């Protein structure tokens, strides 16, 4: 799983754009899409996000699956909306009237959520997490938040492997998850053990850093320079946002 | 519990972002560079823990463990859980971008509340007593998170009210699961490495 978290892919059209521009573009696009209500504007937004996905050369099926996947409770809320929002009855399920307004609202939320997520995956998800950290730093995100992000990213993979080792050890001893108190206690001990090991690991990390002369500052090397292509791309995204908002206003 | 973009009203989204920024700021103030490795590794642990699926009957739930995160991280739970949510949104497409603030508050605020309410019970007394406090913290954190999610929806519009109530009640089993799990985790940590609960803020004596 966590190999998603690192490695810049081979430079696609979007991969060559300055990471800072991509982050700002994703936020601007999200604001534009979320501020709209008209299905045509939202459809246009989703199509634009799809175009970005192709430009980023993301694997199409896997990315669409990530886009559509929502928490069960969100799906649940969307399904309930037609029945809980008052308005003109459209159809009935088991005697419960569904309103047109509720259905429109649910469709609207689904379009917005998917457009934003798809654009985010294409613009920001296509860069490595280290690049993301450095770009955020250049966008004036506080330094220790950036280092917290970089440390977290660095150790997710390590700890995920440790988690799998512990799970293998449990399986070898005959552990099978079920709806029992024993399962919950075992998982609790597992989490507790991971925390204990994590803390001990962080002590070793700090010792190794101190040993190499760490004096409270981490260097952040990446320098970014804005070129003509970056400005052009930024202007393009801004154009798309304007178009979406214009369709909404019509 | 990731709310998606487009569901909440603008005031709720902006309000959430402001509260989240304040919480993250408070957490970062307590994180000197020397504490970043510990906070980062622990934050990664909670990220990995959220991938664990616990069976409940025919279905399964994934862990949140924000109560435990609050007990271990205190205010640093805000930046740590924010980083987790950011990574999940950007690389896995969970949740959304503009709702990151609301989602951070919904998960991290209960963590901080549990920290203040239960940390003394967890850090002192016998390991069994500590486990009991850990269980209370784990359960209360999920209850508060579900409550805050329901509140974010209810503030947006009345049409969400029935769904918000149902979501809350549907999470009662999850509260029980997280309570037992957190209790067991605290029990083990207290026996093996009691420093875990004041690793980041040894000097602070909370009420």
Question: How does this model look, in words?
Answer:
The complex is a heterodimer of chains A (250) and B (207). Chain A is mostly helical and 250 residues long. Chain A has a domain at 8-133 and 224-249. Helices cover 69% and strands 4% of the residues of chain A. Chain A contains 9 helices and 2 strands; from the N terminus they run H-H-H-H-E-E-H-H-H-H-H. Chain A has helices at 19-34, 39-55, 60-68, 72-84, 100-123, 129-138, 143-172, 181-211, 228-249; strands at residues 89-93, 96-99. In chain A, strand 1 (89-93) and strand 2 form a beta hairpin. In chain A, helix 3 crosses helix 5. The two termini of chain A are 44 Å apart. In chain A, 40% of the residues are buried. Chain B has 207 residues and is mainly α. Chain B has a single domain, classed as Arp2/3 complex 21 kDa subunit ARPC3 (Orthogonal Bundle). Helices cover 69% and strands 4% of the residues of chain B. Chain B has a two-stranded antiparallel sheet with strand order 1-2. In chain B, strand 1 (53-56) and strand 2 form a beta hairpin. In chain B, helix 6 (127-156) runs antiparallel to helix 7 (161-170). Chain B is globular and about 50 Å long. Chain B starts with 9 loop residues before the first helix and ends in a 15-residue tail after the last helix. Classes of the chains: A mainly alpha (250), B mainly alpha (207).
Rg over CA atoms of chain B = 16 Å
What structural category do the secondary elements of chain A indicate? Answer: mainly alpha
Principal-axis shape of chain B: globular
Largest sheet of chain A: 2 strands, antiparallel
Structural class of chain B: mainly alpha
Describe the oligomeric state of these chains in a short phrase: heterodimer
Q: Which two protein chains have the largest interface (Cβ within 8 Å of the partner's Cβ), and how many residues from each?
A: A-B, 88 and 82 residues
N-end to C-end Cα span of chain B: 29 Å
Record field, number of beta strands of chain A: 2
Listing every helix as H and every strand as E from the N terminus to the C terminus, the arrangement of chain B reads: HHEEHHHHHH
The percent range for helix content of chain B is 55-70%
Work out the number of β strands of chain B. Answer: 2
**Globular, elongated, flat, extended or rod-shaped: what is the shape of chain A?**
flat
CATH topology of chain B: Arp2/3 complex 21 kDa subunit ARPC3
């Amino acid at each position: 799983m966590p190999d998603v978290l690192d490695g810049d892919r081979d430079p696609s059209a979007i991969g060559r754009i300055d990471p800072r521009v991509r982050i700002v573009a994703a936020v601007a696009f999200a604001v534009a899409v979320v501020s709209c209500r008209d299905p045509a504007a939202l459809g246009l937004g989703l199509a634009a996000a799809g175009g970005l996905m192709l430009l980023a050369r993301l694997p199409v099926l896997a990315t669409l699956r990530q886009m559509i996947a929502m928490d069960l409770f969100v799906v649940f809320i969307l399904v309930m909306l037609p029945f809980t929002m008052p308005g003109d009855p459209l159809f009935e399920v088991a005697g419960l009237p569904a309103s047109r307004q509720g259905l429109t609202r649910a469709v609207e939320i689904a379009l917005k959520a998917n457009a934003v997520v798809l654009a985010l995956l294409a613009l920001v998800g296509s860069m490595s997490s280290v690049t993301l950290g450095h770009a955020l730093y250049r966008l004036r995100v506080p330094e220790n938040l950036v280092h917290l992000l970089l440390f977290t990213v660095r150790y997710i993979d390590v700890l995920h492997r440790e988690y799998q080792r512990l799970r293998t050890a449990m399986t070898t001893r005959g552990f099978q998850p079920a709806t029992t108190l024993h399962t919950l206690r075992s998982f609790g001990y597992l989490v507790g053990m991971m925390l204990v090991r994590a803390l001990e690991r962080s002590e070793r990390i700090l010792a190794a850093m101190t040993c190499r002369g760490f004096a409270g500052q981490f260097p952040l090397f990446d320098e970014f320079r804005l070129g003509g292509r970056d400005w052009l791309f930024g202007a393009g995204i801004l154009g798309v946002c304007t178009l979406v908002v214009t369709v909404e206003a019509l | 519990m990731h709310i998606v973009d487009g569901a909440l009203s603008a005031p709720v989204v902006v309000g959430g972002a402001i509260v989240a920024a304040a919480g993250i700021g408070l957490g970062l103030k307590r994180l000197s560079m020397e504490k970043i490795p510990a906070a980062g590794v622990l934050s990664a642990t909670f990220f990995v823990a959220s991938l664990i699926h616990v069976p409940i009957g025919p279905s399964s739930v994934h862990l949140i463990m924000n109560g435990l995160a609050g007990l271990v991280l205190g205010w640093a739970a805000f930046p740590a859980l924010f980083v987790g949510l950011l990574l999940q949104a950007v690389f896995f497409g969970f949740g959304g971008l503009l709702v990151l603030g609301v989602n951070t508050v919904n998960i991290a605020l209960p963590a901080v509340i549990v920290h203040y309410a239960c940390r003394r019970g967890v850090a002192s007394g016998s390991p069994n007593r500590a486990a009991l406090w850990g269980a209370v913290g784990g359960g209360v954190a999920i209850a508060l998170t579900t409550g805050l999610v329901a509140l974010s929806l209810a503030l947006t519009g009345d049409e969400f009210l029935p769904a918000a109530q149902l979501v809350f009640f549907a999470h009662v089993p999850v509260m029980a699961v997280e309570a037992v799990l957190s209790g067991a985790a605290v029990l083990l940590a207290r026996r093996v490495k009691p420093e875990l609960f004041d690793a980041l803020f040894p000097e602070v004596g909370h009420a």
